[in-house]
Specification:
The protein has 6 helices and 20 strands. The chain is α+β, with helices and mostly antiparallel strands and 341 residues long.
Amino acid sequence: MAVALAAFVSGCSGNGDGDGPRADRSTTQAAPAAASDLQDDYQKVIKDVLPSVVQIDAGDSLGSGVVYDDKGHIVTNAHVVGNEKTFRVTTATGEQPLGAKLVSAYPEQDLAVIKLDSVPKGLKAAEFGDSAKVEVGQIVLAMGSPLGLSSSVTQGIVSATGRTVSEGRAGGGTGATIANMVQTSAAINPGNSGGALVDLDGRVIGIPTLAATDPDMGDSAAPGIGFAIPASMVKTVADQIVKSGRVTDSGRAALGITARTVLGDDYRPAGVAIVEVRDGGGAAKAGLRPGDILTALGDTPITTITSLSEALAAVKPGDKERVTYVRDGDERKAEVTLGEM
C-alpha cells in the first residue's frame, strides 16, 4: 500500500506550477484522498469477492476453493483434494461446514472441481477475468485460508507473467509442470492453495497454487515469490469437468512415451531415456523406441524429466518438433508430430 501511495503523491507533486508552498498544500490534500480511494477499492473488492472463496477440509489437510457457479461447483487445486472423495466446505460467512464430493481432479494441471451436496441460499459465484489482460505491476489480492486462517487476504502486485513452473511431489504436490503461471508478490502460504488471486476490478485472474522455495535455505519458502494458475486455464479445465465429469481436451502436448532421467559419466543429468513408446503416439510414428536417450526438443536442451515437461508445456498438440536423441552412441534427429496428453 505504501508503494501505491508514494506513486500517487509523486504524480500530484509533479503537477505543481513551481510555487513551493502551493504545491505542498496540494500534495498534502491529494495524498489522503488517494490513500482513501485505494483503501475503498481494496475494501470493495474484498466485500465483493471474499464470499466466493471457501475453505476446504480434505481430511488431513486444509485448502481453499473458489465458487465457480450457482450450482455449487467449486474449483480448487488437485493437490488440495489429494486422494479424498468427500469434503467439508466452510464459506466466508462462517456457517456450519457443508458436505461436498469430488467431481474430477486433473493433476496434470493441478486443478480439481468439487460440488456441494446442497447449495446454500445466496451462494455467489466468482467472476473470472481474462488472463491475456494481466499486466506486470497491477495490484492484486490473494484470498484464502493460509495456515487454516479462513477468509484471509494479502496484497501485492503481479511480478511476472508467462512463468513455467514445475511443482514438486513433496508435501502432497502433484509433480505437475504448469505453463503461463502468474507470479505475484502477494503472500502465498500453505492453505492459500486453491483460493483466488483477484484484481482491483474484483475478477479472479488466477488460482494461487505454490510458493517458491530457496534451495540455499533448506528449501524454505522464498518470501514474495508465489505462483497462480491463470484464469484462462482454470476456466478451460473447470468447464470441461463441469460439463463432462472429466477433462476431454487437455490442450497439452505429449510425445507418447514413458521415460526416466539418466546420468552422464560425471553423474549429472544428461538426458531422458525412453522406457516405453505408446502405440500410435508421436514418438512411435517418428521411429523412436525404448532405449533412445532424448537430449533436445527443438532448440531446448533436455537433461531431466522436468526439463522435458517444461519444454512440452511451451508447445501445443499438433506442432511438429525436431527431437535430438542418442541411439547406440550415435546422435540422431527426428521430426515428431506432437500428440495430446
